[in-house]
Prior knowledge:
mainly alpha
Amino acid sequence: IDPVSKFLWTYVLVYLLAGAGIYFSIRTRFVQFRYFRRMFGQLFNSRVGNGGISSFQAFCVGLASRVGTGNIAGVAIALTVGGPGAIFWMWMVALLGMATAMIEATLAQIFKVRAPDGTFRGGPAFYIQRGLNSRPGGVVFAVLLVFTFGFAFNMVQANAIADVLNTSHNVEVHYTTIALVLLAAPILFGGVRRVAK
């Protein structure tokens, strides 16, 4: 897997993501700058309506899915290896990524569906299925997403937490595991409204 990962990150994904960010920035007339002030207004005037979640809560849930171990440990590693120049380029890529994230969120809103309980469901699997008319593509994306978020991302983050506590404070890994499960389970099994709160 490592050679494939190195090839994708070195020759494909960096250019694809930067290119998409430039394209979406130009097509939206640099929405990330034009609506920057409005974004804060929407967050601070956030209200919950019709039993859903507020725009601030939706922002927090979206942010939680984008910021993880890589954003914390990755920045420290980049600063150590690449110096201040690495931070500058991370800022530049983040500015481009804002347009890509806005397009992604807009597609999720356009192609979302209302569930029987009144909540909405949406995201890439829905706009792949409904926007691109590709049910197999949407199903593959959903299965990979469940696997990735259900196992891979959680294992990386749980491992990072357990390793730090074990190395720095001699807390056994199984105690950290039990504590993380007990803290996370009531939130996760409470549905999106509890996660948002």
